[in-house]
Amino acid sequence: MPVHVARRASLLSALVAVASVAFVGCGAHPGRPVTAPAAPSTSPSASASGSPSAPASASRTLTAEELVAAALPTEASPDAYGHPVSVRRPRAGERESEVSDPACARLLEAAHARRPSRPAPAVAEQTFNWRNDPNGGDSTLASYGNSGAVAVFAEVSDGLGACRYYESPGPATTYKGTVTVGPAPRLGDEAVQFEITAPTEGGSHVTQYTVVRTGSVIATFTKLSVGDPDLRAFPPALIARQISLLQQAQR
Known about the structure:
The chain is of the alpha+beta class. Helix content is about 25%, strand content about 25%. The chain has five helices and nine strands, in the order H-H-E-E-H-E-E-H-E-E-E-E-E-H. Strand 7 (about 190-200) and strand 8 form a beta hairpin. Helix 3 (about 100-110) packs antiparallel against helix 4 (about 150-160). The longest helix is centred in the N-terminal third of the chain and has 17 residues, at about 5-20. It is globular, with a radius of gyration of 17 Å. Mean pLDDT is about 80; it is low at about 1-45 and about 50-55.
């Protein structure tokens, strides 16, 4: 992989890590696993699209290997540097991130498939870099058993109804993220979109999140931009193709 691409991937990983990942049960209820609701639940304030007609248990649960097979092929975007999809494995001694607002902690945990749930989801992750974009993006695909996907998506929706600002200690300075909810895309069974903006010495860093539930799978797409609103969005065509591949895999 070209050196400048590796630098882009390293920058993205460091910034997103400060904003969101490495949550292991932090928040208001650190030891309480997510359980399936009796009926699908959404929050109007989260601007979720779609209205699920059946619990996620109606769709086939995918294994980690099946998620990898259903991920976007590296040649899906002609102007992208391909990165292979990988299965997330539990890491011993994984550090908890400190987020000042419990509602924001639960939101980010759910979006990144870090909420405790029974059974634990199968998770696959993929990184994207584009030739004309100095920043990159990521996708997280998580397949849950029973109605787990409905419950976890409800955590995302509920979190967006309460989370507006949070702080989290970073390697050099405190990350200060402001959450803004955007119009929900019409994808899958339910979908939300939001942005987290944080001031830095290099300008405002904006991470756009698109979270989609399709059957038993929740797909989260993140895209980082620094000072350029034209490069803020994860390519919608790639998101739509990924959702289509996940729908086909569950049939």
